[in-house]
């Protein structure tokens, strides 16, 4: 006679579950309330690739007297900030990056030449007495001559006459301010008035007083004002100025053939002060406002349609639970947006793609829970939807945590080692992964357990979507295939695919983008479509025979060359305009050769660290055997993805690097889920053959792999079809990566783990005939088999 469970214990457990549900509900409400408040009060800052503008990366250079260290770079940032403020740019951003780099973002600025000229000039202002005309022209002395004894130099004046200058009497440190003014009274046109500090005022009177002692018309009666080793003004001291008295009052006026813009720019440079060290432009990107608007629209449509298709898919598969997971996905979107705003992250175009991709990854956690709940409910004699869900969340937690941590490793590497928009992708992906865990483990659980406890749902368990095991699992369990009977055949097949794809690297070579090679890439939108061959010939005639010309987007033209000056870039633009009529520059990117080499090195470091980090984590979390198998499969995926892009001639650039590291994080998810199930089965059936346990784990996790893969494919297909052209290759890389990663986790990582295990133990895989092992002839039941019908379910003990 069975002893019934005491009512008090049952009521106690019920109260505990109710209390836990209430706590989770309060946490979910608090998170959502905070997300709504942040979303309404703190807008997300858009990157330049979404709102248009210019980004310039400057690198400080050491001189003989000053080292370009962190302190000098910080002083440079302050000087540059003053210049940018004077330019009147709305919402500029200027930050130090590393020891000696400064990143400047200028929204809305479409003329990078002007911005680079203003920011890149050292603006070293000096005032010199003129010793007389030079015997040798200045160009014979390379523009200037200095002697160690007295600091004299030779520079050409405004008319080209070479002058011998005395050592500087005043510097920019003596300047109090400068202002551009139009001198209508004297007819001098635009002038720049310079005000000196007290000490500078005395020295200005001294230098002009000395010059006034020389006869009118003599070069020695002039005072030279030099900016960055160029005489910008060398006026004669007015005859009214007395010898020895000089010009008092603490100010002077610089005259010349200035127009409005030139006078204001000169005043800006003088007032802003000199840079403590010279700077060099190593990266420059300009995105047209139109291109940014199109990118936002395309990305938004991709997000909406991809999310809708994914939601429809999980609702069809999981019914009520799928609908609740869709609500949780919407909450995930709000949480991610609020988190981006709260941390002050910049949303870039790759970041927008990361946001969309994380939706597919958020589905993964829900699918894991629902599939485990299906197994739990099918394995119980008196199934309860709520108890099955509780067990599903508990059983799936370790797999969810492990798979998300591996993706966070990839996101962290992108953040610390990448630059520009790709770093923004890493930030968005990391935030998306954390938000997906909150969405699945808190919000979905609250909604699902609340719905499962309703009497209407309890009476109709089929509407929950987890009362049956699903068609994929039913088909697998009916056929019960032994996929791992000959693991070496799967490894041989993987090797063949690896060799075919990888040979593209040797045969076709890699088409590195300008991020890794250095150079300049300009994209034009023309009134009439231009044939790339004609444009290539025109540019060759213009002096650019090595320019790479390609069509892009809807009739746009992309020109990629070695590093160009702004003057040479204007020549390229003119050549394109002669073929296409009215021409608009929608994108302009300049990468210095030193930065390209550095980015290539960082890419290899990031790739190596990603594989090493995954191996270390999996070895600690599971066993070294599983970690080695998973990393072997990851290396297989990386070579295939790079090889396919080599065969297709697609660019290997920063966006591809983001896709590659994402594939590493995403691909290892399948391996983690599979190895987590193998570890669980090993704990129950330690004496069962390893290949049989692995095969059972594959069959039990394959429904999750299929459903998760479908969710990711729907999202990525939306990106590939609807998103901006620059994200098409990104989406293609991820689609290839998802397909190859799904295959490798089952047919590369699993057979490799079996072979490594057999090598360690010295055993050979068992071969099944009629459900029996050749070694023992006994029927084998490794692990807990999931019944395919309610009749079987009632026979489980």
From TrEMBL:
GO CC annotation, single: plasma membrane
A GO BP annotation: intracellular protein transmembrane transport
Domain SecDF P1 head subdomain per the UniProt entry, residue ranges: 155-277
Superkingdom of the source species: Bacteria
UniProtKB keywords: Cell membrane, Membrane, Protein transport, Translocation, Transmembrane, Transmembrane helix, Transport
Topology class, membrane: Multi-pass membrane protein
Subcellular location: Cell membrane
Xref: SUPFAM superfamilies: Multidrug efflux transporter AcrB transmembrane domain
Pfam families reported for this sequence: Sec_GG (PF07549), SecD_1st (PF21760), SecD_SecF_C (PF02355), SecDF_P1_head (PF22599)
Membrane spanning stretches: 21-42, 298-318, 325-345, 351-370, 391-417, 429-452, 490-510, 603-620, 625-648, 654-675, 706-724, 730-754
Presence of the UniProt keyword Cytoplasm in the record: no
Residues annotated as domain Protein export membrane protein SecD/SecF C-terminal: 279-448, 572-758
Quaternary structure and partners: Forms a complex with SecD. Part of the essential Sec protein translocation apparatus which comprises SecA, SecYEG and auxiliary proteins SecDF. Other proteins may also be involved. Forms a complex with SecF. Part of the essential Sec protein translocation apparatus which comprises SecA, SecYEG and auxiliary proteins SecDF. Other proteins may also be involved.
Role of this protein: Part of the Sec protein translocase complex. Interacts with the SecYEG preprotein conducting channel. SecDF uses the proton motive force (PMF) to complete protein translocation after the ATP-dependent function of SecA.
Family the entry assigns: Belongs to the SecD/SecF family. SecD subfamily. Belongs to the SecD/SecF family. SecF subfamily.
PANTHER family in the cross-refs: PROTEIN TRANSLOCASE SUBUNIT SECD, PROTEIN-EXPORT MEMBRANE PROTEIN SEC
Name of the protein this chain belongs to: Multifunctional fusion protein
Species name: Streptomyces lividans 1326
